[in-house]
Design a protein that fits this description.
about 200 residues, mainly alpha, Arc Repressor Mutant, subunit A, Tetracycline Repressor, domain 2, about 80% helix
Length: about 200
Amino acid sequence: MPAQDRSRERVARILDAAASEFAEHGVEAATIEAIAERARTSVGSIYQFFPNKRALYEAIGDQYLEEVRTLFAALVTEDAVKAPWRDVVRATIDAFASLHRTSVTFRAVWSNVVYSRRFFDAGQALNRELAERAETVFARLAKRKLPPAHRKLMATVVIETLSALLLLSQDRPRAQSDALVGEAKIIVERYLEPYFD
C-alpha cells in the first residue's frame, strides 16, 4: 500500500471496483477501463499500482484472506473459549456464512479461483493457519487429554469440512444455503461431542 493517504484511498477504490467487476463479470471478461470508470480514476492510475489484472486479483485475494483472519481472531477469544462450546461453533459458522454472503471480495476471489494458483495456495495455507489456532482452542475445550497430533488432526478436519461446506453453500439459493449451513453445524457438533462433552 502507498504511504500517502490520498494514494491509499485511491488504491482502496481501485480494489473495491476491481472486486465488483471480477465478481460480476469474471476476471477474464473484466477490463481495466471498466475498473477505472467504476473507481473514478484513470487507467494510468491503476497501472501505477497494479501492472495487470492478475496483480489486482491477487491483491483482492490478500484482502479476503485478511478479512478471514480478522473475523476468526474476533470469534476465537478468551471470552469465547469460556462460553459453551456449541455456542462458539454455531456463532463461528454463522459469522463465516454471513461474511461469504455479504463480501464482494469473497465472491470476486472464489468465483475466479482458477485464475491464480498463488491465491489457491494462500487459501490452503490460511486453512492450515486457522487449524493451528483452532487446535489451541481445542486443547482448552477438550474434557479429556488429547495428544497434540490428535488435536491438530481434529482441527484440520473441522476447518477443511467447514471451508468446503461454506463454499458449496454460496452457490445455492438462500434456502438451500441456509440448510447446508445448518447441516455443517450438525456435522461439526457431532464430530466434536465425544471430545468436548
